[in-house]
Each structure stands twice: as C-alpha cells, then as structure tokens.
C-alpha cells in the first residue's frame, strides 16, 4: 500500500510540472534547419505569426495560426488588441500592416519578406469562436496573401468550435469555452498542420509515449522575467537524442494555458507529440509565467515596445531556444548556382507604371524585381516580365532582377535598366501640424476606439484629444502619413 501511495504521489508531482527534479538545458541536436516551423493558439497564434514574419529566415518552412491575427495587428495598443484584433475585425488596417512589414524588412528590423514565399501556412478558426472572431482570421489570410502564394495557404473554418485548441480525442466538448481551452471536435488539428508543412507523414504513435521523451528545460538560460516562466517543456523523440537528423516545431499555448494553470495538458494532450514521435520532430513548448498579463504572450506590447520585432525579448528568447536545439548539426541549402538574368529592359511607360522585361534563366523557379534596390513584388514572379505600379509621374527609376532557385535563394542582381514615367511631376508634399482633434475636424484623420488614424495610411496617431499633436504629410489624394516635409 505504501509503495502504491508513493507511486501515485510521484505521478501527481510529474503532472503538476515536474518540480521534483531539476530542469536541464536544451540539448544540441542534429536538426535540419530548413524545416523549422511554429504554431500557436490565441495569444500563441498572434505570437506564431510574429515569429514567422519577424524571423522568417528561421521559420521559413511554415506557420500554423489558430484563433490569432495579422502581424502587428495591435500596433502597440491594448485598445486595438481587445477591439479590432479580437471583437471588431472590420477595423483591422490590413494594407497598413503589410506596409509596416515591408518597411521593417527593408530596415532590417525583421527578416526579408522574400523568405515567406516558400512558406506553408495553416489557418484555423472555430465558426463559433466568441473570443477571436473569424473575421480576424479572415484579415490574417488577406495579410498573408501579400507574401505567401495562395496555393501554400490552407484556411479551415467550418468546424463549430469555440475558442480552443482542437483535437480528435481529448478535451471539453467542441462548443465549450473554458479552461483548459482544449476541445474534442473529432478533428486532429495538430496532425493537419504538420502534414501541411511537411507532406505525407508516418502514422502517428497512438500508444503510450515514452516518459523520458518529455523534457523540462531551463528557460532561464534564455530569458529572466519578461512574462516568461523559469522552465519550458520539450518532446524529443529517442531517435533525435540518438543522433538522427530531425526537424523542429515550436508550439505556443494561449492565454491561461501555461503549465502553472493547466498543468501539462497543453504539452501532452494537444496531439503534436504522437506525430513527433514517429516522424523525428522535436517539439518545443515555451512557457509564459503567471506574471505575464493574463498569462498571454506579448502580442500588443505589455512587456516591450519592440514586442513584434526581432529585438522583442520574448521573440529573442524563443529564437535562442530554436538555435540551441539546432546547434548539434545543421543542414543548410546549397548556394544558389543561378546566374543573373540578362536582357533587362523597360517598356510601356505610363504615369504610374512601368513594365520590366528580362530573359529567362535556366533552372529558375521564379524571379524577384527590385526598384532602386528595394524589392517590389510581394509574390514570386514566374514569367519574364513584371508591371511595376504605384510610381510617381515624370520620375526616373532603376530596376534590377534576380533569379530564384528551388530553395528560395537568389542570384546576384542583373545589370540595371533605367526608365522614366510619363505625365506631370507630382506637387511638393504639404505638411500640417495640429492636434489630433483638429486633424479629424479638418478631414485629415478619423477616430476609432478613442484613437486617431491618418486618412489613407491608417497610421495610429495616438489618443483623440486636443493635447496630442502630430504632423501629417499629404502624399496623395486624401492620403496622409505621419512625417515631416523637407
């Protein structure tokens, strides 16, 4: 009887977080670094999108977002986070978020967006989700349309699921909203996402998984504080520990789902590990702490103003976890062997557009077009011409073209081709400095949720009042940006 009681106590201790033994550092394994992916639910879904976009060179293989939203959706505002990014999706400024993404990438604040062109993206929204409305996920799909080919995106929203991670055999009833936010909807969402990323998988291990494959690791090695717990969890198949080449998938829980609050239910019962065990996939489960706001990941700036950038503290920590587990042996794509395109020229000049032409490169999967050294095509160009639009009238530009191979590696740039648009030169930009209240009264901005947004660009100008002042630059017909005139 005594031995049975001790055994039961040990099992309870293990379930409650493994406090009976010390956490270990993440091991360094033989990882194919071209196959790293990430997924998450709710705040973890927003965080997964952040990691996918900001660290696209690391997570270029793909991302799965469950009840999340577009990159930088909240723009640093809790009002935006709880309003347009959860309950009122009509207010999400998707085109502005795309512009911010391109701008940050050009500045090196996040990785180049070209990395996203080969990504696989899986989106899921429960049709009765009352926390993050399906319209938010619709906006996320629209956002990804600017960077990821449509054929690479799966969007499933036909299951009557509440706000939860969906499984085919564990959790509450599908329509339940409540802890642990894992619902049995007779659908293996984890398996569907992994299959989309990696193609045909070996059958999942439906038996008892080896207890030794669950590892509580020292998260403090990567970060202290910033809303993150001292330890995280990982599932490491025995083959990976023995030296086989494996792949990494990062799994991000949602608010109120860390180990402190739901024990190891998200780590053990969301369906990922059964596929990991039979397909040499290392699963990393980073953990927030109860010191984090609502135990959420930082996707609106509660911890840092740089939360969505590569420099965001939580972002840096999770990237470091992936780097450490991948440090035992890596596979990187071979250098691109493609030559630069030849015969680059311009034609069909108009007031706001120009056609760029070039000769085909043998072995090229696609091409990227650069105007004045900045990439202009969002999706891969598979032909040998590109119509560049949105140009200023009577303005000289220069274009180069790079060939892209099957690993999304670019050739060196082609010889530049110059061209000048037709029409009348645009008038000099005009700037107006005034309070946010005055801007709205003059028709240069509008109000939403107590905040002021510039007409056209929809940039957040701050609170709507007579005390906050901004300078707005008119750059087009009723199109204003925050800035100054020279």
Please report which band the strand proportion falls in: under 5%, 5-15%, 15-25%, 25-35%, 35-45% or over 45%. Answer: 15-25%
How many domains? The number is 3
Q: What general form does the structure show?
A: globular
Count of runs of 4 or more consecutive helical residues: 12
How would you write the strand order of the largest sheet?
A: 5-4-3-2-11-12-10-9
Our Rg estimate from Cα atoms comes to 24 Å
Average pLDDT rating: 89
Structural class of the helices, strands and pairings? alpha/beta
Helix content: 10-25%
Number of beta-strand segments:
26
Sheet of most strands: 8 strands, mixed
Terminal residue distance: 84 Å
Q: List low-pLDDT spans.
A: 1-21
Structure write-up:
The protein has helices at 2-15, 43-54, 78-82, 94-107, 134-145, 189-198, 238-241, 259-262, 265-269, 272-279, 313-325, 436-441, and strands at residues 30-31, 37-41, 62-66, 120-124, 153-156, 165-167, 172-173, 182-184, 214-218, 231-235, 247-252, 281-285, 329-330, 345-347, 353-357, 366-371, 374-375, 385-389, 396-404, 417-420, 430-435, 445-448, 451-454, 460-463, 469-476, 479-482. It is an alpha/beta fold and 486 residues long. It has three domains: 26-330, no CATH class; 345-420, Immunoglobulins (Immunoglobulin-like, Sandwich), CATH 2.60.40; 430-482, no CATH class. Strands 5-4-3-2-11-12-10-9 form an eight-stranded mixed sheet, with helices on both faces. Strands 17-16-19-20 form a four-stranded antiparallel sheet, with no helix packed on it. Strands 6-8-7 form a three-stranded parallel sheet. α4 (94-107) packs across α5 (134-145). Residues 1-21 have low confidence and may be disordered.
């Amino acid at each position: 009887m005594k031995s049975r009681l001790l055994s039961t106590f040990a099992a309870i201790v293990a379930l409650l977080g493994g406090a009976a033994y010390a956490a270990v550092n993440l091991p360094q394994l033989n990882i194919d670094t071209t196959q790293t992916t990430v997924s998450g639910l709710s705040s973890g879904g927003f965080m997964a999108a952040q990691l996918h976009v900001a660290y696209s060179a690391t997570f270029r293989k793909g991302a799965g977002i469950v009840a999340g939203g577009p990159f930088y959706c909240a723009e640093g505002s809790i009002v935006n986070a709880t309003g347009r990014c959860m309950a009122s999706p009509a207010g999400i400024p998707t085109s502005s978020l795309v512009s911010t993404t391109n701008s940050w990438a050009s500045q090196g604040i996040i990785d180049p967006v070209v990395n996203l062109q080969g990504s696989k993206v899986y989106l899921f929204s429960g049709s009765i989700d009352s926390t993050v409305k399906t319209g938010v996920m619709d906006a996320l799909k629209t956002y990804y349309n600017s960077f990821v080919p449509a054929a690479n995106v799966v969007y499933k929203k036909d299951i009557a699921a509440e706000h939860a991670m969906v499984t085919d055999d564990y959790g509450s009833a599908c329509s339940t909203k409540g802890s642990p936010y894992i619902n049995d909807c007779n659908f293996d969402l984890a398996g569907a996402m992994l299959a989309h990323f990696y193609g045909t998988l070996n059958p999942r291990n439906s038996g008892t998984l080896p207890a030794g494959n669950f590892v509580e690791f020292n998260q403090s090695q990567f970060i202290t504080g910033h809303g993150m717990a001292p330890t995280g969890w990982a599932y490491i198949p025995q083959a990976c520990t023995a030296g086989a080449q494996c792949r990494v998938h990062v799994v991000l829980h949602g608010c109120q789902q860390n180990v402190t609050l739901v024990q190891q239910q998200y780590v053990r019962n969301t369906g990922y590990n059964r596929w990991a065990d039979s397909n040499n996939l290392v699963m990393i489960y980073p953990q927030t702490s109860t010191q984090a706001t609502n135990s959420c990941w930082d996707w609106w700036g509660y911890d840092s103003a740089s939360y969505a950038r590569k420099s965001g503290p939580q972002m840096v920590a999770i990237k470091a976890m992936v780097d450490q587990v991948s440090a035992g042996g890596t596979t990187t794509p071979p250098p691109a062997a493609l030559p630069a395109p030849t015969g680059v020229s311009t034609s069909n000049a108009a007031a706001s557009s120009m056609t760029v032409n070039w000769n085909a490169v043998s072995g090229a999967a696609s091409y990227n077009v650069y105007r004045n050294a900045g990439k202009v095509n969002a999706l891969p160009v598979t032909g040998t011409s590109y119509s560049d639009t949105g140009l200023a009238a009577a303005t000289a530009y220069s274009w180069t073209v790079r060939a892209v191979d099957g690993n999304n590696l670019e050739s060196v740039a082609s010889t530049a081709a110059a061209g000048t648009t037709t029409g009348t030169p645009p008038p000099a930009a005009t700037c107006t400095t005034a309070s946010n209240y005055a801007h709205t009264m003059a028709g240069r901005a509008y109000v939403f949720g107590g905040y002021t947004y510039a007409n056209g660009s929809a940039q957040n100008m701050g609170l709507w009042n007579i005390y906050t002042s901004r300078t707005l630059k008119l750059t087009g017909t009723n199109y204003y940006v925050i800035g100054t005139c020279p």
